[in-house]
Amino acid sequence: MFKVCTYNINSIKARKDLILSWLEKRNYDIDVLCFQELKVEEKYFPFEDFKKIGYHCYVNAQKRYNGVSICSKIELENIKKEFGEEFFDQQKRLIAGKIKDITIINVYVPHGDIRGEDKYYYKLDWYNIFLKWLNNHFSPDEKIILCGDFNVAREDIDVYDSSLLKDSIGTMTEERESLEEVLKWGFYDTFREKYPDQQIFTWWDYIGGAIWKNEGMRIDYIFVTKPLLEKLVDVEVDLWPRRRRKPTPSDHAPLIATFDINI
Fold first, then answer.
1. Within 10 A of 235 (CB to CB), how many other CB atoms are there?
2. CA torsion angle for 3, 260, 76, 137 (degrees, to 10)?
3. Of 204, 210, 218, which Cα lies nearest the Cα of 255?
4. What separation, in Å, do the N-terminal and C-terminal C-alpha atoms of the chain show?
5. How many other CB atoms are there within 10 angstroms of residue 254's CB atom?
6. Half-sphere exposure of residue 234, counting CA atoms within 13 Å on the CB side?
7. Which residues span the domain enclosing 22?
8. How many independent structural domains does the chain possess?
9. How far apart are CA 172 and CA 65, in angstroms?
10. What pTM did the predictor assign?
């Protein structure tokens, strides 16, 4: 079996000990870890800590903000950190690499802002440029895993209160349409393919004990192209790291997909 995880850790410095404890608890069963929001420069990433437990880490990061990484038990090839595109090279939100014939793409899509603000347009532009990048470099016939924090809840079932959150950041029609265009390119939502009617979340606000009330949103995804959909076994949200009080958790929980693949 081959397990891939996406996890917005909201600072690798703050979350390192929690992540290492969590991986030990799982007996290091995850083959590929895709982290978002590292919030440190590459030189401060704890490469040695992950190396000690069997992971090769590849990082595209910047000081204080954003940052993505792929940590894999198997060394990656064709690592892509620079893209010749201002949206991707100025803010470090994208990294890609290959494991044999499988391409792993890890993204941290901009959070955005209320309609009409600069960050709102930046988010929509990022999606458009990302779609062009996919068209220029890949085919839906290839084996591709696209994962990360997309900062959009696909449907009303993906938020705890669709009336309260209607037309807010992450649920606006324009944002959802942008995400759906990525899926239409040739991706499948692994969790929704396995659990079409189940409501489960990957993010909960720190305020008001939202995790204990399950007042969350599903904004983290593992998308795959059809050749990998056929190998999909299961998808789970592991709530253990999010429900910790100490060390302080991220506001996201890890999402893990299992494939019937021997690497």
1. 20
2. -110
3. 218
4. 8
5. 27
6. 4
7. 2-259
8. 1
9. 24
10. 0.97
Question: What pLDDT, on a 0 to 100 scale, did the predictor assign at position 215?
Answer: 98
Average pLDDT over residues 197-214: 96
Quick one: tokens of 90? 């100025």
259 within 8 A of 2, measured Cβ to Cβ: yes
- Helix segments in the chain, DSSP class H: 12-25, 47-52, 86-89, 118-137, 173-186, 190-194, 210-213, 226-229
> Residue 187 pLDDT > 90, yes or no?
yes
Q: Please tell me the predicted confidence (pLDDT) of residue 147.
A: 98
The CATH number of residue 39's host domain is 3.60.10.10
Residue 145's closest CA among 33, 57, 251, 50? 33
CB 65, CB 39: distance < 8 Å: yes
Query: Inter-axis angle of helices 173-186 and 118-137, to 10 degrees?
Result: 10
Give Cα 160 to chain centroid, integer Å.
Answer: 20
Among 81, 27, 23, which Cα is nearest to 50's?
23
Residue 169 backbone zone (phi > 0: left; psi -120 to 50: alpha; other: beta):
beta
Mean pLDDT calculated for residue range 40-69: 97
- Round to whole Å and give the CA distance between 94 and 105: 7
What is the radius of gyration, based on Cα positions, of the chain? Answer: 17
Rounded to an integer, what distance in angstroms lies between the CA atom of residue 119 and that of residue 173? 16
pLDDT above 90 (res 86) = no
Q: What is the overall mean pLDDT for the chain?
A: 97
Amino acid identity of residue 196, one-letter, is P
Determine the 3-state secondary structure of 209 from DSSP: helix
Tokens 């470090």 -> residue: 92
